[in-house]
Amino acid sequence: MTATLVKEASPPTPAHPDGARGRRLRRRGRIIAALFVLPALLLLGALVVYPVLFSVGRSFFDATGNEFVGGENYAEMFRDPATLTAIRNTAIWVVVAPTLLTGLGLILAVLVEKVRWATAFKLLLFMPMAVSFLAAGIIFRLAYDEDPDKGVLNAAVVSVHDAFKDASSYPTARARDDEGLTKEADGSYVTGADVSPGGTAVLGLVGVAPKDLPGDAGPARTAASREAGPDEIGGVVYLDFTPGGGGKPGVVDRSESGLPGMKVEAVRDGRTVASTTTAADGSFRFTGLDGGSYAMKLPSSNFAAPYDGISWLGPALVTPAIIGAYLWIWTGFAMVLIGAGLATLPRDALEAARMDGANEWQIFRRITVPLLAPVLTVVFVTLVINVMKVFDLVYIIAPGPVQEDATVLATQMWLVSFGGGNNQGLGSALGVLLLLLVIPAMVFNVRRFRRSQR
Predict the structure, then answer these.
(1) CA-to-CA separations, 306 to 48, 158, 215, 262, in angstroms, rounded
(2) Closest CA to 57 of 428, 442, 445, 454
(3) Alpha helices for 113-187 (secondary structure H)
(4) Taking burial as the number of CB atoms within 10 A of a residue's CB, which of 322, 369, 431, 452 is the most buried?
(5) C-alpha angle with apex 362: 358 to 364, nearest 5 degrees?
C-alpha cells in the first residue's frame, strides 16, 4: 500500500529537452531559408508579377490611361486587321516551326550517331545558338536581299537559273521610232517593210551603253555593205549610236558597232520559217529561202530583263523566310536534347529488333520514335512556348513595307504600344492574350517535368 502511494506521488517525467530545441532549430532554418529566398522573390515580384498585374489592369483603360473602357480593348483586338494578321502568323509559327524543328532534330540526332566526327558535327550545328537574335536577324536580312550582288541566296538562285536559261545581253535595247521597226505586244520588234531573197536588212537599235557591249563586238560598217546572194537574205543588227557625237540616225557609220549574239527570225505569213544569231559584227544570213517576201523579227527574248531571283522578303514569302532563319538557330538545340534522350534508350531492345530481322527504318519508326515520345513532347512544347514570344527576328528581318504582313503577336504588341500606335491599353490587352496562350503550354511542361521526377 505504501509502495503504491509512493509510486503514485512520484513527479511526472519532464519533456525531453531535445524536442523544444529541435522545433527552434527548424524554425530558425525556415527563417534563414526565407531570407535567402527573399531577394529572388522580390525580383520575381518586381520583374514578373507586378508587370503582369499592371498589364492586366492597364488593358481595361484607353490609350491615355485615364478612362476606364472595360473590355473594349479586347474587342478591338479582333476587329483590327493587323491584329488578326498577327494571330494568323502566330498560328503559322506555332504549327510549322516546332514541328519542323522537332523533326529535323530527331533525324539529325539519329544520323549523327553514324557519323565518325559526331562531336564536331554537333558543335557545328549548335553554334548558331551562341549568336544573338539581333545578329542572326542582320545576317539573314543580308542573305535574303533581293539584289543578287548582295543577297547570297539570290546570287545562288540566279546562277542556277542562268545555267539552264541564257540571260539577255541587251535588256535596255530599243528601236528608234523612225527606224522602220515596229514593237509588238510581246516586246519583239518586226520590220515594217518586207525583204526578199537577195536583199538586206539594216536593223539599228539604241539604248545600249558602249561600255555594256560584249568584248567581241566589231564594227558593223563592213557587214552593212555586204551584198546577199540570190537565195539568201542578209543584214546587220547594230548600235545606232556614235560615241562622242556625230553620225546619222538610220545609217551605219564607221565607228558604230554590231550587236553580236542577237537572235533574228525570218517570218512569213505570221510564221517563223528560219532563225539565226548575229555574228561579232552584228551580221546575219538566211540561206535556202523560197521566193517571196519575209519580215525580219527580233524576238522579245533579246530584250528580256535579267532574272533577279526570288523576292524572299516580299509579302508572300516573308514569314516562311523568317521561319527559315529561326530553324537555323534552333535546330542544334533540338538535336542535342533529342540526342541526349536517344543515348538513354535501351540498346538491347534495338539489338533484339535487328536480330529479329527488322531494318533500320522499322527500328526507327516502331522502337526509336515511341521510346523517344516523352523527350519529343518536351522539345515540341518548349519550342511552342518559344515561338509564341518570337520578336527579334520578325522585327529585324522584315522590311518596313512588309512589316504588317510578317507581324506576330509580340511585334504587334510592341508596334501598338511603342512603335507609333501609342496605345498602351490595346498593347496591354495583346500582352494578356499572349500570356493566356503561353500559360497552358507552360503548365503542361511543368506537370510533365514533375511526373518525370517521380
Answers:
(1) 54, 9, 19, 15
(2) 428
(3) 118-126, 133-143, 152-164
(4) 322
(5) 120
Query: Which long-range CB contacts under 8 A does 356-359 form with residues at least 24 apart?
Result: none
211 CB-near residues (< 8 Å, 6+ apart): none
Looking at residue 178, its pLDDT comes to 67
Closest CA to 187 of 173, 202, 207: 173
C-alpha 61: how far from chain center: 37
Collect all residues with Cβ–Cβ distance below 8 Å to 359 and sequence separation of at least 6.
none
Other Cβ atoms less than 10 A from the Cβ of 415: the count is 20
Q: Which fold has domain 181-303?
A: Immunoglobulin-like (2.60.40)
Phi first, then psi, for residue 417 (nearest 5°) are -85, -45
Question: Cα–Cα distance between 193 and 179 in angstroms, integer?
Answer: 11
pLDDT, position 1: 42
Q: Delimit the domains of the chain by residue range.
A: 72-156+312-453, 181-303
CA–CA distance, 57 with 60 (Å, rounded to integer) = 6
Bridge-partner residues for 271, per DSSP?
A: 268
Taking the C-alpha atoms of residue 222 and residue 202, their distance in angstroms, rounded to an integer, is 12
8 Å CB contact between 303 and 211: no
pLDDT of residue 318: 93
Instruction: Measure the CA angle with vertex 167, ends 152 and 235; round to 5°.
Output: 160
- Block means of pLDDT (10 residues each) for the chain, 454 residues, are 46 57 82 89 89 90 87 88 91 94 92 81 86 90 89 89 77 80 87 85 87 84 80 88 76 86 89 90 87 88 83 91 94 90 82 82 86 89 90 91 90 86 87 89 80 69
Q: Is the dihedral of CA 421, 426, 427, 433 positive or negative?
A: negative
Residue with cell 517535368: 449
* Number of neighbouring beta carbons within 10 Å of residue 175: 21
245: left (phi over 0), alpha (psi -120 to 50) or beta: left
Other beta carbons within 10 Å of 234: 22
Write b or e for each residue in 241-265: b if 16 or more Cβ atoms lie within 10 A of its Cβ, otherwise e: beeeeebeeeebbeebbbbbbbbbb
Are 72-156+312-453 and 181-303 the same fold in CATH?
no
CATH for the 72-156+312-453 domain, from 1.10.3720.10, 1.20.1440.230, 1.10.10.60, 1.20.1060.10: 1.10.3720.10
